[in-house]
Write a structure and sequence with these properties.
The complex is a heterodimer.
Chain A lengths: L4 E5 L9 H5 L4 E3 L5 E3 L10 H8 L7 E5 L1
Antiparallel strand pairs in A: 1-4, 2-3
Chain B lengths: L9 H4 L5 H5 L2 H10 L2 E4 L5 E4 L2 H9 L4 E2 L26 H8 L5 H22 L4 E3 H6 L1 H11 L6 H12 L6 H24 L5 H7 L10 H32 L1 H9 L4 H11 L4 E6 L3 E3 L2 E3 L4 E5 H4 L34 H18 L3 E3 L6 E2 L7 E3 L1 E4 L4
Helix pairs in contact in B: 6-8, 6-16, 8-9, 8-12, 9-10, 9-12, 10-12, 12-16, 14-16
The chains are: A alpha+beta, B alpha+beta.
Chain lengths: ~70, ~400
């Protein structure tokens, strides 16, 4: 079995399109300016892997990284 | 004002105000894209048009060579006297001006506005639901963003017709007629100055007061000029853009019964459908001014020219979007650039998405059956913001 996924939003790239929060509210949150960050340490709970990839593939700024622990 | 010569060679002499471009730009963009990632015209004192997603993205990210101080391609380039921060700002002035505007437009802030927008949509539908036909652009899509932004700003929703007139004069007539443009800008400034003055003695809980109480990066209140410029921006950017996006979505659903029926049967598709309408029918084309010589996708670009930043053309690039010419309402991967890319991402994107979603949802709930009126004509706006300005529909079942 593969390792856990971990997401990270690059704060220099994020421009606040908020697509990730709309698609995967369990994994992403927004600050008061509407810019996104990963929830907690970015570890993707089991069962939400598809949502993580969906958010990544809809970020217009390519600001989301997904790594495997 | 002189009528421009009709285009015979799109690759070397394009004109984004040509009636054929206004009517159906997609085949023109396909032709240009097949030729070169960046084409040039001598019209409008010299303009480049990036035709691919990559080229549009490169220009959007490169604020060193491409300035936002001019964002509309026009026949003239007068001295810059009127700015509308942050859309006309470059770094380093851009960020502080943008930060001020972000909190009132977050998705959470839009949730609070949503019930009022639903009411607005239903009030509008009430007025024509018993008629067999309606011009949806004149009686529905046009009024939703005007009333929503008026509500946010704290100004009377009934002043909407005035705003629509100014926007038409600034974005369409103003491309070629400087006098009309300046008159509209001054009328708008006088209107908002009155609202600003009134709030100096009686602060209110709305976006105008929020701006008046905002501090710049040095902790100083914004000048009246800055507040006026930003209000001008919110009005111009917030109205006919979303009017166009809602109108194009309804136009698509009117002529595509399969998508309409599917959206009614599977309402959970609404978010991907809205993103796809934004991609396929993106209304907004911005512009930049070339400040220093550079290359875009390998093509040389020279100062003294403008760049027409066509997010709509980028969104139809088949190298970025499979089946770019098809509207796929459940498209899974959709990195469209309808709201721009980079630091100038549309500050009102969450508002626009909410208005589009609510406007289509409420329409489909109450008018599930409708189609284009074969006896009428759909008319599209010219220039910077493209969308249906006349949208004759027949309401109810065929029969």
């Amino acid at each position: 079995m593969s390792g856990k996924l971990r997401i990270h939003v690059d704060q220099d790239k994020c421009q606040g399109h908020s697509r990730c929060k709309a698609l995967a509210p369990e994994l992403f949150d927004l600050d008061e300016f509407g810019n996104a960050h990963e929830i907690g340490d970015g570890t993707v709970p089991e069962g939400l892997e598809d949502k993580a990839y969906l958010a990544k593939s809809n970020c217009p700024e390519l600001a989301i990284d997904i790594s495997e622990d | 004002m002189n009528k421009p010569a009709p285009v015979t060679d799109w690759v070397h002499d394009f004109d984004h105000t040509d009636p054929r471009w206004t009517e159906n730009p997609y085949p023109i963009w396909d032709e240009l894209r097949a030729e070169c990632p960046v084409v040039h015209t001598k019209r409008f004192l010299g303009v480049y048009l990036p035709t691919t997603y990559e080229a549009v993205k490169q220009v959007s990210y490169d604020t060193e060579h491409f300035s936002s101080r001019r964002i509309i391609v026009r026949n003239v380039r007068p001295e810059i006297t009127q700015s509308a921060p942050p859309i006309t700002s470059d770094p380093p002035e851009h960020k502080p001006a943008k930060q001020l505007l972000l909190p009132p437009f977050t998705p959470d802030a839009m949730k609070k506005l949503e019930p009022r927008v639903r009411q607005i949509c239903n009030e509008l539908i009430d007025e024509f639901i018993n008629e067999p036909k309606v011009d949806a652009a004149a009686r529905y899509t046009k009024h939703i963003p005007v009333r929503a932004i008026a509500h946010m700003l704290g100004i009377p929703e009934k002043d909407g017709d005035l705003f629509i007139k100014w926007i038409h004069e600034i974005l369409e007539v103003g491309i070629t007629d400087d006098e009309v443009l300046m008159r509209a800008i001054h009328e708008m400034a006088a209107y908002f100055s009155g609202h600003i003055e009134a709030r100096k003695n009686h602060p209110t809980d709305d976006l105008i007061s929020t701006l008046m109480h905002a501090k710049d990066k040095n902790g100083q209140p914004l000048s009246d000029m800055h507040v006026l410029g930003t209000l001008r921006l919110l009005l111009i950017a917030g109205i006919d853009t979303t009017w166009s996006a809602i109108g194009a979505s309804l136009w698509h659903l009117a002529k595509t019964p399969a998508d309409r029926e599917r959206l009614i049967a599977e309402p959970e598709l609404m978010p991907t459908a809205i993103e796809e309408f934004l991609r396929a029918y993106s209304p907004v084309t911005m512009a930049r001014e070339v400040m220093k010589e550079t290359t875009v996708s390998g093509c040389p670009v020279k100062p003294g020219n403008m760049v027409l930043l066509s997010f709509p053309a980028a969104n139809r690039d088949p190298a970025m979007f499979p089946d770019a010419d098809k509207v796929v309402i459940d498209r899974k991967e959709n990195r469209h650039a309808a709201f721009g890319l980079g630091i100038h991402r549309c500050v009102g994107s969450n508002l626009a998405r909410m208005e589009m979603t609510v406007a289509i949802e409420e329409w489909l709930k109450r008018i599930p059956e409708f189609r284009l009126d074969p006896g009428g004509e759909v008319k599209w706006s010219e220039g910077t913001v493209r969308g249906p300005r006349q949208l004759p529909l027949l309401l109810g079942k065929t029969g």
